[in-house]
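Troubleshooting: if your tokenizer reports a length mismatch, compare against these two reference records.
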Amino acid sequence: MTETLETPVTGTPVTGTATTAGARAHAREQHGRTAETMRFVPAASAPARVLAGIPDGVSPAWAETLAFGRYTTMALARGTRIRLTDTAGDACVHTLLYRTGAVHERLNLADTVKVPWQAYPGTGHPLLSDAGRLMATIVTDTSNRHDALTGATTLAGNAAKYGAGTAHSASPAARELLTLGALKSGLGTRDVAPSLSFFKGITVDPSGRITFTGSAGPGAAVELLLQMDAVLVLANTAHPLDPRPDFAGTTVDIVAWHAPKDLGELEAGSLTGPLAPEHLQALRNTEHDLTARNAR
């Protein structure tokens, strides 16, 4: 049986969603409406709070407010600058990076900590791939509460602590959400390596004991500058060492814009200060590889 859809031409208002016509009318009424957490399309339509600080005359490439317990992913170009803002002071953003077009190359936290001789990421810290190349640099940081050592929450851990940990449960684990993000790029569970967590920090004492230091408070922000085309996967969910018995957290604002001139400023040392030898070598590894690829 084929149903003939009513149209506004009849003059009869369509209400409710019990019919196809009513469902269509209801769906169309949602056009243009916004929610507290969403991806803004076009990005320039995001609230002023999200877009604050973008250079004048520059259009955002991505703008989103990510809810706690959710994930997002985006493929971004070399020279893109991404700002994450812990708006209410209780976000925890687990982060992965994959090289676009060669996703076997991805963020390697062991090298990201070992090579620059620094366990606590902050302004000027290089994010390195498993091939010794520079994927991104932290170019601004007002939080200084991050974690490159503990990793992400797991299904088993969340189930034991909160009663559930699946991606669509009330307390999703970071690895479950990061896996969904990785799937969007054709990756799977085996490709979800240890993640870098922003906005919830830790310290390590001389005996090797890790202590959770929590958040820096509302409004803290961190900015990344991409050295290569990359897929960014983010999951905003609890930190594995959060001592609270309840699953709790708040949103994070995300905005990205093209800033290719910053690449030259970074290398020259005028963006974050002179680069350490390890950082500079990783940058040159990336540039050499890009030059070789473009010459083919």
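Reference record two:
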Amino acid sequence: MNTYLSLYQNIGWSLSALVLLTFLLAGTVKGVIGMGLPTVAMGLLGMAMAPAQAAALLLIPSILTNLWQLAASGHLRSSCKRLWPMLTMIVVGTVLGCWALGFWGLGMGSAHGMGRALGGALFVYALCGLFLPTLKVSPRMEIWLGPLCGLITGLITSATGVFVIPAVPYVQGLGLDRNQLVQALGLSFTASTLALGAGLFWNGALGSAEMNASLLAVIPAVLGMMLGQWLRKRISASLFKRVFLIGMALLGLHLLISG
């Protein structure tokens, strides 16, 4: 058990408590609106630790909750057939972004620079969600816009660990029904998480201590997701999402200012 707790022992119990509470909150958000776990985790943990360490911690909770989301939604084959160009370019963009940084992605550059990049990504994402109308993607646009959005999403993922821009607005503009939308978002997040994990591994920021700590973070994330699914039946998901976006905007602004 000490092996699984080694990273938490190194960072101290107050920061460990923040990690567990963050994943409980992040899982709850995902349970209510079907997304937001990595966004919340990177935003809150990015204030207290290096972005690379925060990204390493979110890998396993993100992958497992996305697989849960995929298994519960159906439409897997049709979603893969429609979205594979975007998914492929997410991976390509993440790899290219890591190479362009010259350090294989997160954690090897300036912590202040990474913090501001994370803040900027959160702030832009929140403003888009709050004020921009839903994108309408025609079949003709889908041919070129999907790969372009995937490439840009991958580049942003490599720099910030946040993989919602512009993939989420694009997927929401495809006119999918609720189950198909949940499926498509799960596929996008899974591809982004796996690509980010590969970048962290080659960067040397993903060792056994980080993997073990990430595995333990699954517990609060799953509990939070179950709580969120329970809450979704009892509260307005649209109001909850609006409050979530306002919180992300304030958090992004704070990270932009403080770095």
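Descriptive notes for reference record two:
- The CA atoms of residues 119 and 252 lie 4 Å apart.
- DSSP finds twelve helices and no strands in the chain.
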